[in-house]
Amino acid sequence: MERTQEHGPAGNADGTTTRSGPSGAALELLVHGVGGTTPEVMLDDPRTVRITGDDIAAVFRRADDADAEQRPADRRDGPVPEAYVWCNLTSGNGTRALWLLLLPFMVVNLAHWMRPTARGRTRVVRLYGLLVRLAGLSLTVLLVAAACEVALDLAAWQCAGTRTCAERHSWLGFLSPEVSDGGWWSLPGRRLALAALVPTALTGLLWYLSLRTWNAYESQQPMTRDPESEEAGDRTALGRPGFWYGRRLVARLRAAHTAAGLLTVAAAVGSAAARHDREPGGPAVLAVLGVLLETVLAVGACAVVWVVCRRGRTERRLDDELDARLVRRLPLAALVLLALAFLYAGWERDGWESAGRLPGDPTFGALALVQGLLVIVLAGVAHALYRADPDRRAAMRGLAGPAVAMLACALGGVMSGGVSQRMSDWLDGTGTSIPGPPVLLTWQASVIPPLLVLLLVLCGWLARRAWRLARAEHAAVEHEYPGETADPGRTRRIATARAMAALTDRAPRIVAATSAATLLLGAGALVGATITDRTPGAATQDSYAVVHGAAETAQALGSWLIGLGFVLLVACGRRAYKDASTRRTIGILWDVGTFWPRAAHPFAPPCYAERAVPDLTWRIATWTQATGGRLVISGHSQGSVLAAAAAWQLPPSTRRRVALLTYGSPLERLYGRWFPAHFGPAALGSLHQEVDCWRNLYRLTDPIGGPVRLPGDRDPEVDRAPLKDPLAYGRTGAHPLPAPILGHSDYQADPAFAEERRRLLARLRPEVPAPRHTADPDGGGPAGPPVPSA
């Protein structure tokens, strides 16, 4: 980049923009996709300047085009290209890979947005969102409970309370009554209070990360606009003023989830002491205090659930209000209760010794049962919504949301069980000195091997399907390149690329099978743990040798696979943020997950679109009103989704002045099927009617992008016929070297791209009258960018 100083249209001292007349200039606003790129590559020029923005997201131009508005005659041959670079919103240093450890939170947040289309079913839609928010709350409690299990139960209660285990781990010696010779910290309650600092710090870290990203993302206000009749109606919520501004809800959820985590730690510390005090002969005063503490904790839990249930998203208006008292007082009250629990548990008691496990085993069983019931009820609600307005293109007949919510709960359970089992194996080298984690967690970790076997079977089915598709594509490839000398190897590679790309459409079946198997295996683990109260290996000890051997193998492999999975997850995440090719491989799933606002879980990774969509909306509206020229939003891959979201946010009068050019776009293939309520056929059809024109390019070898497939007769059509890939079968004069199979990349190299862009610009009106500028009614200057008249 040549320099980073900002350029823009000339302005007056009061901030309003003036011009002598409409320039009629044409602008192409390029929006890149997954993996990101540099402005130099996007603009095909090593000399670029930043027009507006910052180091996180900005708009760039070629240095020669910095003042193109003042020289419209010099650009008669084509549009002025601008590049919106937003890759820093989703990438950064290696520490960002730690977000992958909170994957269950992101997945359950996705389930919120996967509901089927609903017309006039407001109460059912609210119930759907409520159930997903409760599932998200259960995941927070599960995460903190798993941290309590590791720190309080396994380390402080079991290992520190057992002489052989404490001697093996010298760092626990000061907590052991035998090793420390009855030291001050060796009392069971004090050990628990000290170990509780670990899950408390984890909760505080989650609160801090959510607060920091909340200030950076949710605080970006969308563009204000004059009230106009919305032609889209209720076709999609993405056009509502408050859709990309969820500041109030995220703040409420952050307070509730933080309080839930702190109350979980307080319950883990206080319940052990309260159970001891209720035993015959215990101190009456402490017994009463224990009952009072548990009662207050139950009241606090009810308050948290009430806050989560009380309010959902406010999208029809820009909600600037914050529930300041609730946001401050709820976590503070939970912190006070936690301090009281520490004080109560740390009180000296005669004859209290740590033996067995902490009295928290039923907690994990209750969480698993609640999560299963929530998913089942959610499936019923989603089915009712789907039957009211069926959409045959919707993934899994409207059950994608419940299926994904089930996978989120399964991820949380498996990660909790695996980490607890691995920690137990590390602390208890002999396997006989401590009881280990709750039986249910061991059962949950043991379901991983059979689930992997199922995934291998599904992968085998996909491979067979790809092989059959590749064979079917051979004839099609030869038909598309007539007159070429047959090359079996070349034909096979092209057909295989098409077959592999087509496997994306089989994803709903994979998710459905995995989710159903997870539900059944989870139910089996819960039943097995409840009935036997023993680990899988111990429960099958008297059974057939093959059954016992399989149970022992699954139990041993489960914990090791979890540990290996954590290492691979972090390593893959770090590599994805440093290596562009790896990021493109997994980036589409991550960018889909972080595209949506945090509506169900405040500790999920932040939504980059709450910054990117307002950026694009402001840029389009201000440039259009300042110049009166033509504008084409050119979006590739995920950039096409951002472009569509920005177009929906524009006022209708401005929306009619822009054209869309999308390529490699997942708008229908991914978003339309998995998120039908927001990108369904009605929503995409309304977008086609409201923008001036829209063309979509795709290839059969592209595993991500695809056609839009608008229902009914649309004029002009959105989808162009599939582009040839490769551009040439063999060596030609234009391609003397073998042309590569491009797949999802380099759409601009195809001559069809320039042709479609030229046609879009020709359809747009060459000049638009200059708009009148309106001042703020309070006299404080302009209220946002003036909206051009039609």
Automatic annotation (TrEMBL):
Residues 1-25, 762-790 are annotated as: Disordered. It comes from the Bacteria. Signal peptide: none annotated. Keywords: Membrane, Transmembrane, Transmembrane helix. The chain crosses the membrane at residues 127-147, 192-211, 255-274, 286-309, 330-347, 367-386, 398-420, 440-463, 510-531, 557-577. SUPFAM superfamilies: alpha/beta-Hydrolases. This is Integral membrane protein. It comes from Streptomyces fimbriatus.
